[in-house]
TrEMBL record:
Species: Gimesia aquarii
Residue intervals of the Phospholipase/carboxylesterase/thioesterase domain: 29-234
Highest taxon in the source lineage: Bacteria
InterPro entries attached to this UniProt entry: AB_hydrolase_fold, LYPA1-2/EST-like, PLipase/COase/thioEstase
The protein's name: Phospholipase/Carboxylesterase
Molecular function GO terms recorded: hydrolase activity
Record-linked Pfam families: Abhydrolase_2 (PF02230)
Keywords for the protein's UniProt record, in alphabetical order: Hydrolase
Family the entry assigns: Belongs to the AB hydrolase superfamily. AB hydrolase 2 family.
Length: 244
C-alpha cells in the first residue's frame, strides 16, 4: 500500500497516493478526521476515491493529518481531537433533542488547532511547490470545522473546501473572514438525522457562504453523523474537475 507516515510542522500525518515514482501530484487533498477518531481514520478514503476514479491515480495525493490532542486520558486509546469537547454537555443535548446553537462559540483550543493545521498546510505547500490553488481542504465533523477556519484564513484561497457533517462556529469571525477572502468552491453534505451536529447548523453555515457569493454544492441526506455515498461521488467529481 503506497502509504507513508511523516511529521510536518507540529502534526503527524499519513500520505497516500498511487503516483508514478518521481511524479508530483496536480492536486493535494488534505483531509482531517473528527473528534475521537485515530489519526488514520479517513485514510481508506484515498484508495476508495482512486478506485472509483482511476484517472486520478496519476494526479492526486491525499494527506491525512492527525489532530494534536490525545484522548487517552478520556479512555479513548488512539483517539485524537482538534480541541476538547464537553462530552457531558453533548450527551445531554443529544438525550434532550435540543438543537445545539454554537454560532457564537469559539471553543477553547480551536484557534490554536487551526493555526497548527494552517502551518502544516503552508509547510506542505512549500515542500511540494504547488500553489495553494491546487490544494483541497476538507474533513469530517470537527475536522471539517477546523478546515473551514483554515480555508478562510489562508493567504491564497484553496482549490476547494469539503465539509462533511460540519457546522457554523464563531459566526462573526467567519463572516469577517469571508468578507475578506476570495471565494472558492465549497462541497458540503449533512444528514437530516444528525444528533451530534444538528442539520440546522449546517444550513446556517451554507447560508453564510451563500451570502458571501461562495459557490456551494450542498447535499442533504436522510441519515446520521456520517459521510454518505453522494458525498463520496461528488468528492470524486470535484477532484476530476480540478485535474481535468
Amino acid at each position: 500500500m503506497p502509504l507513508t507516515t511523516r511529521t510536518i510542522g507540529a502534526l503527524s500525518c499519513q500520505i497516500y497516493d498511487e503516483l508514478p515514482t518521481n511524479q508530483n501530484p496536480e492536486v493535494i487533498a488534505v483531509i482531517s478526521h473528527g473528534f475521537g477518531a485515530p489519526g488514520d481514520d479517513l485514510v481508506p478514503l484515498g484508495p476508495e476515491i482512486l478506485n472509483r476514479n482511476p484517472a486520478l491515480k496519476n494526479r492526486v495525493q491525499f494527506v491525512f493529518p492527525a489532530a494534536p490532542l490525545s484522548l487517552l486520558e478520556m479512555g479513548i486509546p488512539g483517539g485524537r481531537a482538534w480541541w476538547m469537547l464537553d462530552i457531558e454537555e453533548l450527551n445531554a443535548a443529544i438525550a434532550s433533542g435540543k438543537i445545539r446553537d454554537q454560532r457564537a462559540k469559539t471553543p477553547e483550543g480551536f484557534l490554536e488547532a487551526s493555526q497548527k493545521l494552517s502551518e502544516f498546510i503552508i509547510e506542505l505547500q512549500k515542500e511540494s511547490g504547488l500553489p495553494l490553488s491546487q490544494f483541497v481542504l476538507g474533513g469530517f465533523s470537527q475536522g471539517s470545522i477546523v478546515s473551514t477556519e483554515v480555508a478562510l484564513n489562508l493567504p491564497e484561497p484553496p482549490a476547494a473546501l469539503v465539509i462533511w457533517s460540519g457546522t457554523l462556529l464563531c459566526e462573526q469571525r467567519w463572516i469577517s473572514l469571508a468578507e475578506k477572502s476570495k471565494t472558492f468552491p465549497v462541497l458540503q453534505s449533512h444528514g437530516k438525522q444528525d444528533p451530534i451536529l444538528p442539520f440546522d447548523g449546517a444550513i446556517w453555515l451554507k447560508e453564510m457562504f451563500e451570502q458571501h457569493q461562495f459557490e456551494i454544492d450542498f447535499s442533504e441526506f436522510m441519515g446520521p453523523h456520517t459521510i454518505p455515498e453522494v458525498a463520496m461521488e461528488k468528492f470524486g467529481i470535484l477532484l476530476t474537475d480540478l485535474t481535468g
